[in-house]
Write a structure and sequence with these properties.
Layout (H helix, E strand, L loop, with lengths): L1 H11 L13 E8 L6 E2 L1 E7 L11 E6 L2 E6 L10 E5 L4 E2 L6 E9 L9 E7 L2
Antiparallel strand pairs: 1-3, 2-7, 3-6, 4-5, 4-8, 8-9
């Protein structure tokens, strides 16, 4: 069973991941909450290409978690040109009126790029 899972995973990896050292470099740039609308808020997070070539579409996957819960998992990702930023929105809403509630987030980019050290961002937002 384990071997089947590994084989399925390996076959599902995009062909672009097999390249040795890509010149694109994706950075988990920013995470923020939108202003309150109708009693709730949405998380937005920015992915920036700080490399020298375009990051191909679907060459990366984006995971976004809040308090350990998966809020968003983006696999159909767009190409990002050098110096450009794409902003994603987590589809799940956060109730706005929870004063003092801590929201610990993790933004993770799964890719093989020039610098894996900037592919993660974590932090905490306290609601007011």
């Amino acid at each position: 069973m384990f071997l089947r899972i590994v084989i399925v995973f390996l076959l599902s990896v995009p062909a672009g991941w097999a390249q040795e050292s890509p010149l694109f470099d994706l950075e988990a740039a920013e995470v923020y909450l939108e202003e309150e609308k109708e009693g709730s808020r949405l998380f937005r997070y920015a992915i920036k290409n700080v490399g020298t070539v375009t990051a191909p579409a679907e060459s990366y996957r984006v995971f976004f978690k809040v308090n350990g819960k998966m809020m968003s998992f983006d696999t159909k990702t767009d190409a990002i040109e050098p110096g450009k930023t794409i902003v994603y929105t987590a589809p799940e809403k956060i109730p706005a009126r929870q004063p003092g509630k801590k929201l610990k987030y993790r933004l993770i980019i799964h890719t093989k790029d020039a610098n894996a050290g900037n592919n993660k961002r974590k932090g905490e937002i306290i609601l007011f």
